[in-house]
């Protein structure tokens, strides 16, 4: 939804920042001067005793001298309530008595429809809650009591009961003049295949309302009271309100609690979430299916940087954890990961809370293991590695897993941790480099192809060869495979934020920008083209799904394009503005290399958009392929020289030269500032010598 000019300025003028902040802090009366609009308090964003959090009411800004948090009223609401930009606008607009601007007619029509369906869902919530108090629900009440739920807890979670029978809810809603079509569209009823009246979706079940992040009822989960029922738990079908793979149970309360510092916990089911929340772990959610989806994983990371996955201590729980590891590996980002808290064997979080109390749960959570250890456990637990072949099999399996990680820095750290665990498994000390890797893991694969002077020698001892692992991004050391990262061996001195390049600093993509910058440019053009011509998304849906999104701002935009570009292209821009704020597209379209793109100059032209995307995706794939092949060839040449390897390096170098020529052709289209990283002299000379060694010119 686009906000009209001046709306935010009017909102900020009506809202007092001290009033907004004052709901979350206690002002320091000695330092604050209300008459001057000058307020001080302990910071709400980090634990402290001194009043270092400063609010200047007249300027409308806050700043913490301890943690450097800063912003205006909108930013404060976003941070403390853990909500998005538009949600923060709606919250403050409601407090200021300002009406939110209306959407275009189509969007307004859709919103009216959703409002009607939500009203029907709320009627169902009330109906089920009333039914829980009837005689027919005696067994359900007894079951809930055995699970330790008090009446207050039942009220807080709005738990209800769907009585047995085919049309109980249907008749109740019809008695309130709800249209048949709305009952069916809300997923509360199903049409009969025998020409009879539609029947209730939920029958003889304990009912758990499912609400979205804004607290609106969108679906139900029902637990069967009949032990012979085919489905112990049943969720509402997919509807206009409910997308199972994009929803979390207890999303809104957990998000708010996480914003106040509570750790985010992911449990398996409704009762686990309720039990943990009631026991003092309010930031607990559950997926609404058999496994966490990629969309749900991204939702979790928007709530908390390192969710704790609290799984049952049985085989099914472990299998679920392993599936989640496979899902998360390609999506890892710096600071975004998962930890796994495995419950005692045979228990789930609800069992542990009721039998041993919250302290026992906290102990398990404190022992949550990082994902790399769970990955190692999967590949090694219950296996014997008493032969070179078995050890090589382990190396191959781990190498394949590490290759899934897109981020090179995270890949390097995973490699280092696994190398250390491997040394422990095979009885090597940390200083022993005879691990058979001769340089260790690097960039998605460790070269465990032979022992090259390391490993066990024929006399049973350990060889002294091997150079040890040097992760990418570390300092250059003699004897390591390559230099990387900071070339002076330490951290660079901070030189301030980079300024935007001026016209005089135009540079080609090859000479003036690193590969990440080039990729960001292409990503921006691709996403902007999809927004300008949404009908093209259908053709390139699979390419967009594989788009890595080097720029973290591009990921949420890509997800929205995939979600609405195929099914609802006409409202794509409205949905992006609503989810990310109007600044998202403004910032994207204002980028120079985007603004001059033909897709923006001729927005809506499907043919041009299709041609441009085909070219951009092809260049991205070519660049990634050339990087991977050349990297593997350069690593392998450390140990062997044969015709196959020589051919690989020649092909990789030729592919790189082709990519460079293609980039030069793009010079008139893209303009990237000369702030990228170049090879230093030592690196350039080494690579040039390597090319000359196999008889290939270094162009």
TrEMBL record:
Zinc finger (CHC2-type): 43-67
Keywords: DNA replication, DNA-binding, DNA-directed RNA polymerase, Magnesium, Metal-binding, Nucleotidyltransferase, Primosome, Transcription, Transferase, Zinc, Zinc-finger
Compositionally biased tracts (Basic and acidic residues): 655-669
Region (Disordered): 450-499, 655-676
Reactions that this protein is recorded to catalyse: ssDNA + n NTP = ssDNA/pppN(pN)n-1 hybrid + (n-1) diphosphate
Superkingdom of the organism of origin: Bacteria
GO biological process terms, semicolon-separated: DNA replication, synthesis of primer
PROSITE patterns: TOPRIM (PS50880)
Needed cofactors: Zn(2+)
EC number: 2.7.7.101
GO CC, any one term: primosome complex
Gene Ontology MF term list: DNA binding; DNA-directed RNA polymerase activity; zinc ion binding
Cofactor: binding details: Binds 1 zinc ion per monomer.
Keyword DNA-binding: yes
Assembly mode: Monomer. Interacts with DnaB.
Domain free text: Contains an N-terminal zinc-binding domain, a central core domain that contains the primase activity, and a C-terminal DnaB-binding domain.
Function according to Swiss-Prot or TrEMBL: RNA polymerase that catalyzes the synthesis of short RNA molecules used as primers for DNA polymerase during DNA replication.
Protein name, as recorded: DNA primase
Organism from which the protein derives: Tritonibacter multivorans
Gene symbol of the encoding locus: dnaG
